[in-house]
Design goal:
The protein is an alpha/beta fold and 443 residues long. The chain has three domains: 100 residues, Fumarate Reductase Iron-sulfur Protein, Chain B, domain 2, CATH 1.10.1060.10; 136 residues, Up-down Bundle (Glutathione S-transferase Yfyf (Class Pi), Chain A, domain 2), CATH 1.20.1050; 121 residues, Rossmann fold. The protein has 23 helices and ten strands. A four-stranded parallel sheet has the order 4-3-5-6. A four-stranded parallel sheet has the order 8-7-9-10, sandwiched between helices. Strand 9, helix 22 and strand 10 form a beta-alpha-beta unit. It is globular, with a radius of gyration of 21 Å. It starts with 7 loop residues before the first helix and ends in an 8-residue tail after the last helix. Bound molecules: iron/sulfur cluster (2 copies). The site of one iron/sulfur cluster has 15 residues, from helix 3.
Amino acid sequence: MKTKKMNMRDLIRLMKALDREVANCSRCGICQSVCPLYAVTGDESDVARGKIMLLSGLMTSFFENPHGVRQRLDRCLLCGACAAACPRGVNTLELFLTARGIIAGYEGLSLVKKLIFRRILSNPRVFDRVMEWASRWQSLVLKKSDIPAGSCGTLVSPLLSHRHLAPLAMVPFHKMLPEQTQLPGRSGMRVAFFVGCLLDKVFPKVAIDIGRVLTAHGFQVIIPPDQGCCGIPALAAGDQASFQRLASHNLDRFDPLTFDFLVTGCATCTAAIKKIWPAMVNAASPDQSAAVARISEKTYDVMQFLVEVAGVRPSGQEREIVGGPIITYHDPCHLRKTLNISSQPRIVLSASGAGRFVEMPDAGSCCGMGGSFNLAHYDLSTAIGEKKVACIEASGASIVATGCPACMIQLADMLARQKDHVQVVHVMELYAENILESAPGPK
Ligand code: SF4
Ligand code: SF4
């Protein structure tokens, strides 16, 4: 059962706004050459240009077959490769997110999505409790494997397309907060840490490492309690109401006047706060609008922060490291394509001295995760992920580092499917392991 939420006047207003952006597309087709989905399907309607042509006839096609339009729009990783390559500056990400919102507003959300987004995700305390409960029972469906990823038990494995799942942490990061908040810093600068769902609930060690590294560099780390999701999963599902609710929830907890910088260790959270919030949050007041803009200005990916603010420099010693592991790096789409962050993680890796760095071929290609795309189109996600695994293997690395917990989950699953023992880590884990004793101070 679905409900229709958006009234016709709002719908037509949003469609007209969409039309203006659609008109910017010259149909040049450059986006075709960078689309990871097109690379595995060869289907023009999967490319940004194909979707934009669909949207240009939206007024007609939408009322004739809204479900068909929705299905076509859902076949997209929201990786941003098309937006980064577009010579006309068409903001395809905002376009697709807005279009998904229009269609979900007209068709309504399914009961499952309403339950997940409206009842659970947009109520952070409920979400925390549900995930804590799930972490206690996950041993019933997950079994340990000798490859570096959790794997499904036989009962649910076929239902999950034999995925290798990263298990939920038994103790999420927010439960460790008394030891982590309000750490003093010698720099006099205060850094707010937006933790994000996956670092909190799946990779709390990465969050701990980030807190320790920032402290070692002399920053006071502020970790407001009761943080919520950045809202992107809801927005990607077209649930604008839950996105707005989560953005407001977080804005109430992150007052930009109380910190100098905001950092995250998740590529998607950084892109959301820096780019998507200013474009898509319907601010409730001029004050909230100003807060969104201020937070966006102050937001850094943690590796970018270490290089641009803390003054971390490459060691230049990597080639001389003998006997250490070979490390390669996967560029998360939301860092490289949306935020143009690619040199900084490599500098942090170099500074860590954790091993010999070898660039993989096509390091900037998508891993195939795409959030809910992985859930809905696992076959396509896997086809894209297998190409990434071939790139990792070509590097000869025993460790692949990245800067996004969602990419970590996908890479671990894809490598495990090939029975490959390459270890997947966050760059900050390597940096924390290797430099904490000798961290330099801020610039
Ligand atoms: S690259 Fe940009 S202008 Fe060219 S077809 Fe794609 S979206 Fe349109
Ligand atoms: S966002 Fe990525 S997957 Fe979607 S159309 Fe653009 S390049 Fe293709």
